[in-house]
Specification:
This protein is an alpha+beta fold. The chain has 4 domains: 309 residues, Sandwich (Immunoglobulin-like), CATH 2.60.40; 132 residues, Neutral Protease, domain 2; 225 residues, no CATH class; 78 residues, Immunoglobulin-like (Sandwich). The chain is built from 11 helices and 46 strands. Strands 5-4-8-2-1-11-14-13 form an 8-stranded mixed β-sheet, with no helix packed on it. Helix 3 crosses helix 5. The radius of gyration is 32 Å and the shape is elongated.
């Protein structure tokens, strides 16, 4: 459906606070009693009727219950004149939004009933001016969804119907208009008859079943830009783009990639299952009406600026039209998948890099703004009615599809979803049914994935805590950690890729499976790894925005989704630099000997890669305390905060944070903290002493304590600096329990410690001064 940023009215809608009570489901109770098989819609939309419509709809239906004495249909605002049941006039009652029709005789499940409703009037448009049937002296068309009403379905704005996601029917449209106008509906054009009285009647037939909100009609002095598409099914499918007469060349240029987009979706999702590919220019849009997509005329401008919207609406013919969400609470099945297809078409038409770039920017905006626009972190399923068409459903929904692809892998993912589309073609589907189908098809239990990504709010975050290589076994053990962003519980049964590289740029990729906060795995790698990168190709949409670049020349590189810039001054060979912006709370300072007031609680950076000899670069870490950016405004609530900004660094998770020298390049609102001689490791913003920019009051080179090797699987050495007066060293486990005590007598003392008596796990080496005060501790990883 439409991307709301295109139209001011939709932007206003998204910021509007609803004043009415919201319902929990969009399903119409009428569909529990009857099943409509076919609609025959006859309407006169001729302008001498003063913007009214008039005509009748003949509805062929079968009861789902026996002994029905009456049936109901939905209709907004329009006045019902007469109702016939099986060609006999019958009594009816019209109440707001509904027609209750008395039956002359009771009917049951073995009956087929034809109901003909004659009606007229000025059709309804919702209060926000978007959904409904628009009739004016220039153009008339419907948009099948209301953003302001609940339920949202708006087929009932121009014909009596069962208006939910479940009831599907076939359609014939007979639309009579002024003779200088052209009527476009879903399906194939059967006839165009001149009535001889200044009007014409167009007959369109739709041979695939749809819910009522996907039915459509548009009237204007349209001309058609025509083409054909050869489907993988072997069918030649007509393409009709109906536009204003002076927009034909613009349409050809704006839709120049329509056939490659179709080919992309067929390759990924299977054959196009409809008789026609159709778009029709409207003043508002866009809306995925089946085979007759409403598309804003203002965007048919000869450019490719909004090509993703063309792809989004077209992809609904797989997700939304072919399969349809069972309830409004399942709307991510329609809109989240279609939004993901904005990236997928880029992969097919422009390549994988365009796909990754598009999704990286989308994930950044989801993590930064989604919870703001939707007034909190929300689960995809069970979304409240006033957020059915909000950011969570569209934007976060697309990132969940991205993660599902990464979780299953391409082969399983695409084959499984193709099967799902075939199994549920022209049917509704719920989130639970999708979960269970994928589980049955793949043999992979999807309960944990759906529980975390679909049925609860928030995000997971994956990082590598440490890596240890054993020279004796030739194997490498990786320890990983899961953090949470606004999620109530950890995700279980995670599947995450780990990529290893050495200085010769050899690469080896495998997966780690783990549940809960921590996990580890020992890998048999055909080389000694220099680095291990988690989810290097960004297959999972966790609470990180990350990007790697292979750098061959000096200069400035902008990692914009990571809020970082790299300025390379010198390199002797190619370098690989990966920057990760982590949208979660970093580890806190263990020993605050630098009088740090507070460390950022919501984000930090990780710099990784292969740095050749003589690689010299500065790193520029972005800050922004503007209230509309939702980045540092709570961390830096006042302009004095900008004066007190400092940049902290640690080489790895076993070390504590220490300030590094930096220069602030910016003002009290936004800018960069720039540090020279960028090193691999973690960086975070903090509030410390005022006016530290370009002043060397902090020393990041005071190594009061060194532990090496770390991680280790056998002995390790503790080296103390001459600048610290230490009497005792405690070794504590992760629970804070003391496992050993070491008395210290001399400065610069080197202690060789036998780790055989320590079990695998995380430990802390804690120093005490002569007053028995804890001063510093360092993290140690033992892996056996």
């Amino acid at each position: 459906m439409m991307r709301k940023k295109f139209l001011l009215i939709i932007i206003l809608f998204l910021s509007y606070s609803y004043a009415y009570t919201q319902k929990n489901s969009i399903k119409s109770s009428i569909s529990d009693t009857i099943d409509v098989l076919h609609y025959n819609i006859n309407l006169e939309i001729a302008y001498y009727y003063s913007n009214q419509v008039s005509g009748f709809a003949e509805i062929t239906l079968v009861p789902k219950l026996n002994n029905l004495q009456s049936i109901s249909l939905e209709l907004l605002k329009l006045t019902v004149d007469t109702v016939k049941v099986n060609n006999n006039i019958t009594n009816f009652t019209q109440i707001p939004g509904k027609i209750i029709i008395s039956l002359p005789n009771s009917i049951g499940t073995s009956d087929t009933v034809k109901v003909k409703v004659y009606y007229h009037g000025i059709p309804q448009v919702e209060a926000y001016g978007w959904g409904g049937f628009h009739v004016s002296s220039g153009i008339s068309y419907n948009l099948g969804v209301s953003f302001g009403d609940d339920p949202h379905n708006y087929g009932k704005s121009f014909f009596p119907c069962v208006d939910d996601f479940i009831d599907r029917a076939l359609y014939d449209f007979y639309i009579t208009v002024d003779s200088n106008k052209f009527a476009v509906c879903g399906g194939l054009l059967q006839s165009n008859i001149n009535n001889g009285n200044g009007t014409r009647t167009f007959h369109w037939q739709l041979n695939q079943s749809i819910p009522a909100y996907l039915a459509s009609v548009a009237v204007y002095n349209y001309v058609s830009v025509n083409d054909t598409f050869l489907s993988i099914s072997g069918k030649s499918i007509p393409i009709n783009i109906y536009v204003q007469p002076n927009d034909t060349n613009n349409a050809k240029n704006s839709f120049i990639n329509l056939k490659p987009i179709l080919q992309t979706f067929e390759n990924f999702w299977g054959a196009y299952n409809w008789d026609r590919v159709g778009y029709v220019a409207t003043t508002l849009g866009a809306m995925e009406h089946a085979t007759n997509i409403a598309y804003p005329a203002s965007l048919i401008d000869g450019t490719l600026d909004e090509e993703k919207l063309i792809a989004h609406e077209l992809s609904h013919h797989w997700f939304g039209n072919l399969i349809t969400c069972k309830t409004a609470e399942d709307m991510w099945i329609n809109e989240g998948w279609a939004t993901y297809n904005e990236a997928l078409y880029k992969e097919g038409v422009y390549g994988k890099k365009e796909y990754k770039d598009y999704l990286r920017e989308k994930l950044m905006r989801v993590l930064q703004f989604c919870h703001i626009k939707d007034n909190g972190y929300r689960a995809l399923y069970g979304i409240p009615s006033n957020y059915t068409y909000g950011e969570t459903v569209y934007q976060k929904g697309s990132t969940v599809v991205q993660s599902l692809r990464g979780y299953l892998g391409d082969s399983i993912f695409f084959n499984t979803i193709k099967s799902l589309l075939q199994q549920y073609a022209f049917k509704d589907i719920s989130s639970y049914e999708m979960r269970d189908f994928i589980t049955a098809k793949t043999g992979i239990n999807m309960n944990s994935f759906f529980d975390f990504y679909v049925f609860q709010p928030g995000f997971t975050h994956f990082s590598i805590d440490s890596m240890i290589y054993s020279a004796s076994t030739g194997k490498t053990t990786v320890f990983v950690r899961q953090r949470l962003k606004a999620a109530p519980v950890f995700a279980d049964n995670n599947i995450v890729e780990i990529t290893f590289m050495n200085n010769q740029w050899q690469k080896y990729t495998d997966t780690i499976h783990f549940s809960g906060e921590f996990g580890s795995k020992t890998f048999n790698i055909p080389f000694i790894p220099e680095i291990a990168l988690i989810d290097m190709e960004e297959k999972l949409a966790d609470a990180t925005t990350d990007k790697y670049e292979i750098i061959k020349n000096s200069g400035l590189l902008d990692f914009k989704e990571c809020f970082f810039q790299l300025d390379v001054q010198q390199l002797s060979d190619s370098a690989l630099v990966r920057v990760t912006h982590n949208w979660v709370m970093p580890d806190n300072i263990k020993n605050n000997i630098y009088d740090i007031k507070r460390i950022h609680y919501d984000r930090y950076w990780n710099i990784e890669g292969i740095f050749p000899n003589n690689f010299t670069a500065s790193g520029k870490f972005y800050y922004n305390r503007l209230s509309n950016q939702y980045l540092d405004n709570k961390f830096m609530p006042s302009h004095q905060s900008a004066d007190s900004l400092v940049l902290l660094y640690r080489e790895n998770t076993s070390q504590d944070w220490e300030p590094v020298n930096f220069v602030k390049n910016g003002d009290i609102f936004s800018g960069y903290l720039v540090t020279q001689n960028l090193k691999k490791g973690e960086y975070v913003l903090a509030i410390g002493k005022p006016f530290q920019s370009n002043i060397n009051n902090y020393s990041a080179d005071k190594n009061y304590i060194e532990i090496f090797p770390n991680p280790t699987y056998e002995n390790f050495t503790i080296k103390l600096s001459e600048n610290i007066d230490t009497k005792r060293i405690l070794i504590k486990n992760a629970l804070g329990q003391i496992t050993d005590t070491i008395e210290v007598r001399d400065k610069n003392y080197k202690i060789l410690y036998n780790a055989k008596k320590l079990k695998s796990g995380t430990y802390y080496i804690e120093l005490f001064d002569e007053k028995s005060n804890s001063t510093i501790n360092k993290k140690l990883i033992i892996s056996k």
